[in-house]
């Protein structure tokens, strides 16, 4: 009988530890933004290979409209998310331009970009996850702090991304609000 109680207690302890570990491993907004921006090398490479312009205003409009609709569905005020999305798109373009400039004198050897449709799908999934995570945070009443800022800025580590790009994304993120 004692063995059954011991086993049950051990099982419950393991289950609660696993649940706690799982909740602590949810990606931060900074790490999600970092992952989203990590796809920009592939976007730049694909566009270079296919002689496409980096700036695609039609695609940007589509992304922005989709993000606003998704934000509204999550209880976020759509207008408040526009600068955050635009800041990410501008940072993404800056990364792409900088890669393209790097490749002018010396194209990257033995590397091929992933197909743009595949990359855009991954970016879209990350964008959704970023908005969901932001909505959860706002609904929980969690305010952004200086510590959050440091963690956010440190989480975003992409080649060809400057500190002012990160600051702009952070500043725009701070202005996101729930619908009232």
Automatic annotation (TrEMBL):
Catalytic activity: chorismate = prephenate
Keywords: Coiled coil, Isomerase, Signal
Ranges in a coiled coil: 47-74
Every Chorismate mutase domain range: 1-100
Enzyme category, top tier: isomerase
Domain of life: Bacteria
InterPro entries (alphabetical): Chorismate_II_sf (IPR036263), Chorismate_mutase-related (IPR051331), Chorismate_mutase_periplasmic (IPR008240), CM_dom_sf (IPR036979), CM_II_prokaryot (IPR002701)
Pathway(s) annotated for this protein in UniProt: Metabolic intermediate biosynthesis; prephenate biosynthesis; prephenate from chorismate: step 1/1
N-terminal signal peptide: 1-21
EC number: 5.4.99.5
GO terms of molecular function: chorismate mutase activity
Keyword Coiled coil: yes
PROSITE patterns reported in the protein's UniProt record: CHORISMATE_MUT_2
Pfam families: CM_2
Keyword S-adenosyl-L-methionine carried by entry: no
Summary of the function given for this chain in its UniProt record: Catalyzes the Claisen rearrangement of chorismate to prephenate.
Name of the protein described by the UniProt record: Chorismate mutase
Organism classification: Bacteria, Pseudomonadati, Pseudomonadota, Gammaproteobacteria, Enterobacterales
